[in-house]
Known about the structure:
Blueprint: H1 2-8, E1 23-26, E2 43-48, H2 54-62, E3 68-74, E4 90-92, H3 103-113
Parallel strand pairs: 1-2, 1-4, 2-3
This protein binds S-adenosylmethionine (SAM).
S-adenosylmethionine (SAM) is lined by residues 27-30, 33, 47-50, 53, 76-78, 94-96, 99-100.
Amino acid sequence: MFSKKKELFSNLKDFAGPSGELTLLEIGAGTGANFEFYPAGCRLICNDSNDNFNKFLYKSLSQNPHLQLERCVIAPAEDLQQIPNASVDVVVCTLVLCSVKSIERVLSEVCRVLRPKSKDLVGWIPPGS
Ligand SMILES: C[S@@+](CC[C@H](N)C(=O)[O-])C[C@H]1O[C@@H](n2cnc3c(N)ncnc32)[C@H](O)[C@@H]1O
């Protein structure tokens, strides 16, 4: 998946807000396997429902000092009430929707937290590619 992820995440900077900063929420971040693909200076909000991943996630953060951790939200992605409306530029979610309880509720939360301009632009790696 390395080359697919590299390609998919290559334009993340284009989603930066008016200040030039990019705030990225990763849902179900797990061990932080996607962190190496995020651009320098990216402000990262990590979400996972399972806090047992935290120590691996912090290890991955220490290996990716180009990222700024804003916060970790331990909660089901179906209910991200700790994250304000229209506050993030990008939401990343890989290998997670197959295990959530409600895809509809997760996607509804994704739409709520994304800044309006970000909703038009969606990246997708088809399963099995
Ligand atoms: C297969 S791992 C994928 C981790 C990472 N996204 C990746 O691509 O390597 C699935 C992750 O989703 C998390 N997860 C499962 N259900 C969740 C939910 N409802 N809300 C948030 N995270 C969830 C799990 O705890 C786990 O960290």
